[in-house]
Sequence to fold (982 residues):
Amino acid sequence: MKTPEPRKTPEPLKTLELSLSPESWMTVCEESRLTPGRGVAVLLPDGRQAAVFRDRSGRTYAIDNRDPFTGAQVLSRGLIGSAGGRPFVASPLLKQRFDLETGRCLDDEEVAVAVYPVRAVQLDPALP
Amino acid sequence: MSADADTRARTSAGTAAHTPTIVLVGHGMVGQRFLEALADRGVTRRARIVVLCEEPRPAYDRVQLTSYFSGRTPDDLSVVGAGFMEEHGIELYVGDAAESVDRAARTVTARSGRVFAYDTLVLATGSYPFVPPVPGRDARGCFVYRTIEDLLAIEEYAKTATTGAVVGGGLLGLEAAGALKGLGLETHVVEFAPRLMPVQVDEGGGAALLRTIERMGLSVHTGTGTQEVVTADGAVTGMRLSDGSELDVDMVVFSAGVRPRDQLARDCGLAVGERGGIAVDERCRTSDPAVFAIGECALAVDGRVYGLVAPGYEMAQTVAAVLSEEVDEEDRGFTGADVSTKLKLLGVDVASFGDAHGTAEGCLDVVYSDSRSGVYKKLVVDGEGVLLGGVLVGDADSYGLLRPLTGTVPPVSPEQLVLPAGAGAPVALGPSALPDEAVICSCHNVTKHAIGQCSSLAKVKKCTKAGTGCGSCVKVIEKLLPAPADQGLCGCFPYGRSELYEIARTLRVTSFAALLDSHGRPEARGGEGCEVCKPTVGSILASLNNGYILDGEQASLQDTNDHFLANMQRNGSYSVVPRIPGGEITPDKLIVIGEVARDYGLYTKITGGQRIDLFGARVDQLPAIWTRLVDAGFESGHAYGKALRTVKSCVGQTWCRYGVQDSVRMAIQLELRYRGLRSPHKLKSAVSGCARECAEAQSKDFGVIATANGWNLYVGGNGGATPRHADLLAQDLSDAELVRLIDRFLMFYIRTADRLERTSTWLERLEGGLDHLRDVVVHDSLGLCDELESLMAAHVDAYQDEWAQTLDDPERLRRFVSFVNAPDAPDPSVRFVPERDQIKPDLTFLTLEGVASR
Fold:
């Protein structure tokens, strides 16, 4: 019954970058650090935190890590899902869902979190 | 009573209007139903309601009285909802009977001397047991069977008795006989009529009943009366019967019918019937328009006194309608009632309905009788084939269908309705064949049409009360309800959890994506799933033993608690719970827990499950904390998972002077066997070393209580928000039998339960309930047990400690960082402040920090 799954699927080395202001990108981590379907937390230079996610098809998203309902920095640890073709994350504390593309809370229309642009950049093999 | 004062204040606002007072004398089932009807109609808001109750406790379910002997407590039998009296501002005086009524002054005087003025008086005094006027009937050892107090007295006296007799072979007499037999007495039943239950069943039915009851070891004497109760020194020693024979008995229970309690009415000059009963009109009004009588004390307009609860309920509704001034023009009031009954007497189904005795002119019988199995069925039809009534003994399953068909020509021939299944008969006749106006619940007079307005059994019970009386109609109601439109787990899957389990098991699906893309809803295929189905499928895959839960795709399915093998708390920190099997721990291990907590500044608390929680760890601290714990011999406690939590134990025979088995050893054995088992919801267990039950095993999903001969296994218990006592599944099991049965039980639950459905709700929902469960896991009626056992064996073989596995693998440890871009930085938002010499989360900081970042 036990089916061993390959631990890592080989993929081209890419780096994730996140933008806090127009034309300025900060490096987050190698894309392969993200498990499809889960998120990671990123410490921003000003002390804030972002939650970066990767979905099953390889698309990445970044929103504020702070759960506005509890104040805890936990959204990166929520489960992601899709409803009507739109990706969302459910807070691990009280399960409110946030649209990953707009930051809007799907369970309370008066609440939203910040959204950050995020991109995957192919590493230049020539660089050390 | 503040609610009452409130009521008066509201009604008297504006005018100085007088608040009418309704005094109810008698608080039995009918009295309580009357109060509920008043509340439903809003009368309690505008009138003062006073209730005088003679018995020392509020209304209880007298129909189920005998169930006291099978373990139901007087509190279980109560029919008064918690807080009902307070909520509706009703003044209830228990243990205080009405003594006299002054109709001219409109006052009632109670035994305590209290005097109540009334505008409306409602008598619901019920009936009293008839005791035939035979010599010796007042001797010590003579009882009646009517109240909880009677039962308590019988139970007490039976401790010193070996033989008992019941006078009366009717419905209540047979219940009393069953109770005496259950108390270990050799039991006789004496019935004056030539057969048992003469009112309900005919000769053939009585004969079938007699054979079955004699087979149970009761001695039945029909066609003979009681001449004398023989006594010595004022106590019962025997009975002399009218046929000249004598019985040696130590106690006698009179259950020879009831008579209406109309003395109070007689004393104040109200009209009563020649043979008793307070005469009432179709609105249940007595000869005094300010006085009503309902239930067994009333003599209805059709000249009958009804001894059943359903007609009493109808009368209660009738009077409540009059008092609320909401009488419907169409409503003819109470003019008579159906006296159909279905009950289980001594385990035998007995039902009669309509013209059971075939008294209508020119009527015909259709009879099926099988003396071997004790089944007797008779239908009475007229010349045109209209069903008039019937009697069912030994197998009354068709009662729910036949009673509502009474008065119509059934859609299939009568003989097909009485022949047993498999005799070439069964034309499946479902409740859908019933007309809309057919009464499905005769206790509450609810029609098929009314039931059709509801969408679930719970709603039917709430809105119509159908199914909450004798319960015999519940099966039919379930068949009438529409199948829920969509039983899918979530927006992604059209299947429920147990179906997904079967799909994953039989098709050997081992990944969520494969399951979603092959069995998801079309619009959800290729998507991400959601926060509902991902952990559910993750748990199914784990139950089916697909290895370490955090590798590969499975990692993305787990809730955060499973993902970090710890429990997230409100500020984003985690708690750590090492397993302490059976609650037994060495001093050295206790010291390690203390040292770890001290070194990492964790808050410690003893849990209800006999272990220790360590709170306040950051995610990046978890590996170091667990390295220390694993080195000291601890394992994951799975507090984060829908899995086995703890098996509590008392100290047992080893130390306790009452213990009869080594409960600690068994608790450890069970906890180690089922640790890590993923299930639809958390699982809790306990083992008690004797019947004193210090481990509280009966509040657990599976609980074990030691007996002198082994172990009793209880299942389906729960504490929490909806407590449920566990049901006894099997008794006096050996160690091996116990473990095998728990293996089967748990795997059957895992296989068939819904998402987040505890064993208690699962067992309540399981069709056939405990009996079905016992058939499946004890008697192997589905032939599943080998497979269930081998699934559990596979789990036990494959078990590995998740924390040890995690610590051994640098790749698996990589996730335990607060920040992916700063692996060594602690999360600055996880802060603590002091509280009682320990720490607590700094929530003020979380809130302030949030405002600043906006």
The mean pLDDT of chain B is 87. Chain B touches chain A through 55 residues (CB under 8 Å).
